[in-house]
Amino acid sequence: MSKDVLVLKQLSKQFDRLTAVDGIDLQVGAGEIFGFLGPNGAGKTTTIKMIAGLLLPTGGSASICGHSLTSESRICRQLTGYIPDRPYLYEKLTGGEYLNFIASLYPDTTEPGRQQVRAEQYLQLFDLHQWRNNLIESYSHGMRQKLIMTSMLMLDLPLLVVDEPMVGLDPKSARIVKELFRKKARHGTTIFLSTHSMEIAEELCDRVSIIVNGSIIASGDIDSLRQDPSLAGKNLEELFLQLTGAFELQHVIAALREDSAGN
Ligand SMILES: Nc1ncnc2c1ncn2[C@@H]1O[C@H](COP(=O)(O)OP(=O)(O)OP(=O)(O)O)[C@@H](O)[C@H]1O
């Protein structure tokens, strides 16, 4: 069993009267790609923001490579790369300046110059190379997303937390991201990602957890989830709908289809 990189114990987040994350327990090992699935408003982004050090938990604890997220938050931030779902960036920097800025926050003491080499490779892969001297304000949503991906993937961090990695990416870029995540994981990086995409979960993730109303209701690899007798024989979408209590949606869809047949 690989050493745990990310450990959450009864992690909770309360916003006034709303419990967005309600005592979740998780352990994710080195080199694992872990998927966090759930319907809108389930608590995925809130959990990811706590892991990334952007929100303080109101209960429970979390550690990254054995360091406490609350009492050693600075160390944890140095160990963690965060790729948000919405790419807010410094508009008045060029892409190249932004990458240099990120590199200065995560100095590569083991192999100086390696981050720059990787950044060049990824800029080429993502067709961003010719844009590196342009201001970020001129980038499209997808280009910004790819710049953030480049900035985090060029680093050698033990943990990457990624909120909805494929949103805004074209199919070619999405394919490249999947391959880069796999390569990173083979080299020992743990990737914790949230997704709505069943395809990504099935294709990329070693294990998944499904969160509903702030609580984890199922965890395991996709095959083991399917072994539940009530879920046997279901495709991944049906599995997700049943687990998240949205199975009645199938009746709604069937009714809509009948309705459109009548039009
Ligand atoms: N800053 C905040 N203040 C108050 N409530 C918040 C805040 N951030 C999130 N919430 C609430 O916490 C709950 C969980 O939100 P969260 O963004 O974590 O869900 P999610 O699973 O990421 O959803 P989605 O798939 O729609 O992105 C929601 O009810 C949301 O309204």
TrEMBL record:
One of its GO terms (molecular function) is ATP binding. Residues 6-238 form the ABC transporter domain. Keywords: ATP-binding, Nucleotide-binding, Transport. SUPFAM superfamilies: P-loop containing nucleoside triphosphate hydrolases. Pfam families: ABC_tran. PANTHER family: ABC TRANSPORTER ATP-BINDING PROTEIN ALBC-RELATED (PTHR42939). This is ABC-2 type transport system ATP-binding protein.
